[in-house]
Amino acid sequence: MLTSLKGKSVLVTGASSGIGLGIARVFASQGARVAVSARHQDKLDQVVKALAAEGLAVTGYTADVSDPQAVRRLANAVGMAQGGIDVLCANAGIFPSAPLESMSPEDWDLVMNTNAKGSFLCVQACLPYLREAEYGRVILTSSITGPITGFPGWAHYGASKAAQLGFMRTAAIELAADGITVNAVLPGNILTEGLQEMGEDYLEGMCASIPLKCLGTVEDIGHAALFFASKEAGYITGQSLVVDGGQILPESLAALE
């Protein structure tokens, strides 16, 4: 059994759907005080209402994680409302597809600013509160795409997710003296709204390439984040945990036959 996180203050960015929502649900179910953020108020309202129907209380805050001022306002609002921030789950990310040949500099910057720069801004803004916590925890949502694998159309996405890990390693060194750990979860193919939009052929193909023969759930990522946030994970920092059903293991599909 992990030490209870009941009463701990948790901020989850990019939590209006998908993995972020799954992370928020897992932490809230453990009794943590959870703040969720996203860019659109209407989606946040839906999340707060949906989780309330499950008996889970979360508070919503709008913020664009690529905007330094918006991120500082977010951190201060959550820190003041919840008496600090113990855990930051920097999850906000986007994954639009664009072939390398036609990818514009604007396409590249949009993804990098949200995924990589956004992680940096969120950690920086939450630092004053994480330093005051009994034990501060930062969990980044990276991906197998970029750090380990590649996929056509996601050169910018892959680069942003690899960049998160480079940031993580140095941040872990710098923040260790404050008792703050910085780790990352690397999801494989997780069943989210965004993945469903890629179509049944994609989903079936991915299931066939995963040794466990199924897609992951958003709660699978939430439980990995919960472990990194625990007191028991206090001697783990600068590390990444792949949660992919074994997807990166086979050399080819022939290995699964």
From TrEMBL:
Family annotation (InterPro entries): KR_dom, NAD(P)-bd_dom_sf, SDR, SDR_fam
Give the top-rank taxon of the lineage listed in the UniProt record for this protein. Answer: Bacteria
Ketoreductase domain location:
8-188
The EC number(s) given in the record are 1.1.1.100
Q: Which SUPFAM superfamilies match?
A: NAD(P)-binding Rossmann-fold domains
Q: Which GO terms describe its molecular function?
A: 3-oxoacyl-[acyl-carrier-protein] reductase (NADPH) activity
Keyword NADP attached: no
Enzyme class at the top of the EC tree: oxidoreductase
- Keyword terms: Oxidoreductase
Keyword Oxidoreductase among record annotations: yes
Q: Which family does it belong to?
A: Belongs to the short-chain dehydrogenases/reductases (SDR) family.
Family annotation (NCBIfam families): PRK05653.2-2, PRK12826.1-4
PANTHER family found in the cross-reference section: 3-OXOACYL-(ACYL-CARRIER-PROTEIN) REDUCTASE, 3-OXOACYL-[ACYL-CARRIER-PROTEIN] REDUCTASE FABG
The protein here is known as 3-oxoacyl-ACP reductase FabG
Q: Say which species the protein is native to.
A: Stutzerimonas tarimensis
The record lists the lineage as:
Bacteria, Pseudomonadati, Pseudomonadota, Gammaproteobacteria, Pseudomonadales
* Gene behind the chain: fabG
